[in-house]
Amino acid sequence: MNEKPRKPQKLKARLPRGFVDREAADIRAVNEMVGKIREVYERYGFDPVETPLFEYTDALGKFLPDADRPNEGVFSLQDDDDQWMSLRYDLTAPLARHVAENFQEIQLPYRTYRAGYVFRNEKPGPGRFRQFMQFDADTVGAPGVQADAEMCMMMADTLEALGIKRGDYVIRVNNRKVLDGVLEASGLIGDDTTGQRLTVLRAMDKLDKFGLEGVRLLLGEGRKDESGDFTKGAGLAHTQIENIIQFLQWKTIQYTPVDGGVRLETNTISSNLAVLDGFVASFPADNPLFLEGIGELRTIASMTDAAGYDRTRIQIDPSVVRGLEYYTGPVYEAELTFDVTNEKGEKVVFGSVGGGGRYDGLVSRFMGQPVPATGFSIGVSRLMTALKNLGKLGADEVVAPVLVTVMDGDVESMGRYQQFTQDLRNAGIRAEMYQGNWKKFGNQLKYADRRGAPIAIIQGGDERAQGVVQIKDLIEGKRLSGEITDNAEWREARVAQEVVPEADLVAKVREILDAQAEDRRRAKQVDV
Question: In whole angstroms, what is the distance from residue 495 CA to residue 515 CA?
């Protein structure tokens, strides 16, 4: 018996894990935000550059191919010349390659910015995606930490340009040399302590999340969280732990200069320079690397204070770690300090939306000579979420297109409808001619309603013979249908449908759109 041939299975439409489709509202919100960031970068004298999505895998630095494929962390493929290429993991490594490859042509210091998607081959989760946008700014060829100070100031100005007011953000600054000096002063020296040092740095990075006691546990045997999961600690001795805790207390204590010395106080607003003075007095580490880092932080503090960026905006903070294998000097992080409501309905502090630091060794890998560099990166997607919570993004809604309806399908009529559409577009008004099945006019009005079209243009044979068009105010018509109860109110209300000469089409449409915009403005004032 012959079996019936199986029907071919339909291809299942499915989105790859860790990736998202973006709708019009989000795309416009990102464009709005990126435009404001770009304006600040340009004002500081930075110029754009663009690098490709793919780089040779070895150029990314940290990720190198093994026998079968590059290590986990990047999306990779092998070219026909057997070389491994990977989707970029961030925007900094490609910039380092670009600078090295074009070193003779570019002008140092090289001040540049770029926005684009980066890709992480990591396990996706809630709010954690494999593709996301970053917006970076970098200065290459500037050895002095005044370039780092400028980056911190530009981060502050960028957040304010996006509508985040002072008090709702802080730029936190530290120095890898200080951190490395503290680890050395705690006895963590030599290649055999590399793994332990990384565990210590990760623990220090958890200060805001777990507090001093939580960090103390992570520096010792480990910490058990509320769910019972245990995180193994760094296994330090008691004296080592207390040495690092003493360093971290710098974050929670403010210092006030008195009679040539310092007095330790809490909840005292003081300058970053005063904080540094107090810290050095209370943590006298006789370590050259530590003291060099403190000196660089002094320079940053002096410059930002002189420029009017006080401790409420740019703050020296010992718990900033960032880029465990990436940075060589100052590191900084932009943190939003206001509360948001998470998916569980809980009030939480929003936290970091970007950061960066000095990476003097990255370009040098290609050059065989030192090339200093510093820069920072903004997490566009994360920052966009914060701005939406504040109501700072997408406040000016894009008005849907005016719909030119189709009453007759002959070539002459279609040409007339298209001419109306083009006249509106040429006047700067969004417009579209209906492209579906025009024979069912009711479907056209349903389409206009679903699209949120503000106006419909209607011309049948009678109107065409008279050289006129009907202009239907769909927004006002919807409101009137629910509010007007008698003919007197109808006569006093704004007319929802008018007949005008073809020559007056554009002017009348603009008049109605302006009236609708005024209605929206008044409605917002009432809501406020």
Answer: 12
Q: Which residues of 368-378 are buried (b: 16+ CB within 10 A; e: fewer)?
A: eeebbbbbbbb
Query: How far apart are the two ends of the chain, measured CA to CA in Å?
Result: 76
**CA 232, CA 230: separation in Å to the nearest integer?**
6
Separation between Cα atoms, residue 8 and residue 228, nearest integer Å = 49
Q: Which residues are 335's β-sheet partners?
A: 170, 352
Q: Residue 351 — left, alpha, or beta (φ > 0 → left; ψ -120 to 50 → alpha)? A: left
Place of tokens 């050395």: 184
**154 DSSP 8-state letter:** H
Please list the residues that pair with 498 across neighbouring strands. Answer: 471
DSSP secondary-structure letter at 244?
Answer: H
Alpha-carbon separation of residue 296 from 76, 157, 186, 291, 453 (angstroms)? 39, 22, 21, 9, 58
Give Cβ neighbours of residue 113 (< 8 Å, ≥ 6 apart).
Answer: 38, 41, 46, 47, 48, 49, 135, 136, 137, 138
b/e per residue, 12-47, with b = 16+ CB within 10 A? eeeeeebeeeeeeebebbbebbbeebbebbeebebe
Q: Tell me the three state secondary structure of residue 485.
A: coil
| pLDDT tens figures, 76-132 | 899 999 899 999 989 999 999 999 999 999 999 999 999 999 998 888 877 778 999
Q: What is the mean pLDDT of residues 208-231?
A: 88
CA dihedral 211, 379, 56, 358 (to 10 degrees): -60
The tens digit of pLDDT for each residue in 240-294 reads 998 888 888 776 555 444 454 444 444 454 688 887 887 787 677 788 999 999 9
Residues 305, 167, 245, 256, CA torsion sign:
positive
Q: The tokens of 129 are what?
A: 């995606």
Task: Please report, as a single letter, which amino acid is at residue 289.
Answer: L
For 305-359, write each residue's pLDDT tens digit: 999 999 999 999 888 888 657 789 999 999 998 876 655 666 767 788 999 999 9
Alpha helices, DSSP H, located in 60-112 = 92-101
Residue 1 has pLDDT above 90, yes or no: no
CB 347 within 8 A of CB 339: yes
Give the pTM.
0.81
Query: Greater confidence, 44 or 69?
Result: 44
Integer angstrom CA distances of residue 171 from 174, 235, 293, 304, 314: 10, 32, 18, 11, 5
